[in-house]
Design brief:
- 2 copies of one chain form a homodimer.
- With about 230 residues, chain A is of the alpha/beta class.
- In chain A, about 35% of the residues lie in helices and about 30% in strands.
- Chain A is built from 7 helices and 10 strands.
- The structure holds adenosine-5'-triphosphate (2 copies) and magnesium ion (2 copies).
- One adenosine-5'-triphosphate sits at the interface of chains A and B.
Amino acid sequence: VMKLEKVTRRYTMGDQTLRALDEVDFEAWPGDLLAVMGTSGSGKSTLLNVLGCLDRPTSGRYLLDGQEVSSMSRDQLARVRNRTIGFVFQSFNLLSRTSALENVELPLLYAGVPTAERQRRSAEALTQVGLRERMLHMPNQLSGGQQQRVAIARAIVGRPKVILADEPTGNLDSRTSVEVMALFQRLWREGMTVLLVTHEPDIAAYASRVITMRDGKVKSDVRQEPR
Amino acid sequence: VMKLEKVTRRYTMGDQTLRALDEVDFEAWPGDLLAVMGTSGSGKSTLLNVLGCLDRPTSGRYLLDGQEVSSMSRDQLARVRNRTIGFVFQSFNLLSRTSALENVELPLLYAGVPTAERQRRSAEALTQVGLRERMLHMPNQLSGGQQQRVAIARAIVGRPKVILADEPTGNLDSRTSVEVMALFQRLWREGMTVLLVTHEPDIAAYASRVITMRDGKVKSDVRQEPR
Ligand SMILES: Nc1ncnc2c1ncn2[C@@H]1O[C@H](COP(=O)(O)OP(=O)(O)OP(=O)(O)O)[C@@H](O)[C@H]1O
Ligand SMILES: Nc1ncnc2c1ncn2[C@@H]1O[C@H](COP(=O)(O)OP(=O)(O)OP(=O)(O)O)[C@@H](O)[C@H]1O
Ligand SMILES: [Mg+2]
Ligand SMILES: [Mg+2]
């Protein structure tokens, strides 16, 4: 469903060049529940951003559902991203002046879903992440872990084909993390492909496949029995 | 060194009242390396914000070094905070238009430290968190875990008496987390009091004391042999 061929993402700062991704060959299959691990700065977020069409490779090809992403128009890309991909950002990226519920409604608003259905589905997504009691709070009236869960609810509400989650349990206690991983596993069994960046082995244990990155390269790629 | 007496922090939203802290009696001693654990929304960040003078209790008393904080003037409070406390925020709070180095220099700038010494000490703090190669990067040119480490460097550069760290390893892989905890332990043995919020038992294992919060209350308080 997602294929990177010799993808490099270079950053140039003055006379220095940094390869956040270095000639990466990578393929994600429908039905993957994939954990991406690796040290701080190894390129995990960059990988996810390229897969999520939020960043373009400096060289190499990215094929999404068989179609080359660099050949799509901006409109096409925006539509594909909204319909196909749900993204949980490492720093949440919530709109600070709208409530948790309104933040979650955003993808459905773009997709033209009618108001009643939009609100019902958003309330449901927030309930699934344990935030029924906090739906009308603004982001600055929420704890760090609650903001993270609003970001997760927003990523899943549109029932996308693929969920890309960057450290979705980074601010969550063990019990809440287990609830979120159970939710991701349930969505996965219902047919969603899930890629999540995590630095915690206990969380990676829920995945069916684990890749490890270092210095912009994929160092290992292992299938396993999910927890 | 820090004492909360029957401290409550209430939030009122319409006709609802939420107690983020609920009649908390708490004391931190010089020489503590304290881990604060608890579920998402249990009040950990609120506790740290009150201890760090970034938030005021709705009722109860806060004594910092024997002095009642509510009786201090705004200037006094700002000076105490700058000189005594180093704070690592759950969401980093870096200035986006200045480099990593300049972000770390900020507490020393407020304290009137001369330029050469300020830059030397800031470069040293960044080296201690493994970011020597990234000193001149802007925050948006850094990975999540690198931004977190800039926030840590900024909190320790002023050699404060107390470090309050809210999930300092939340975005760090295991190896980098171990390096950060070794750094905190080294500062602790040099005489700093360290309070850190964490949801990871492996990180709490480095502490000499662990408190657990739930629904705005301190549920348990246990001394242990640090890892
Ligand atoms: N401005 C506010 N208005 C209303 N409620 C608030 C406000 N700020 C925080 N809260 C609530 O106070 C409670 C405690 O928040 P706090 O940030 O201290 O939790 P926490 O233990 O740090 O959680 P986490 O582990 O998710 O970071 C939460 O339930 C939150 O919704
Ligand atoms: N705009 C930029 N300019 C220069 N370098 C950048 C830029 N953005 C990212 N980098 C560098 O690219 C590397 C990879 O970053 P990335 O965010 O993908 O790491 P990561 O694996 O997600 O790390 P973490 O676990 O800390 O979140 C880092 O070393 C970072 O400093
Ligand atoms: Mg990252
Ligand atoms: Mg918090």
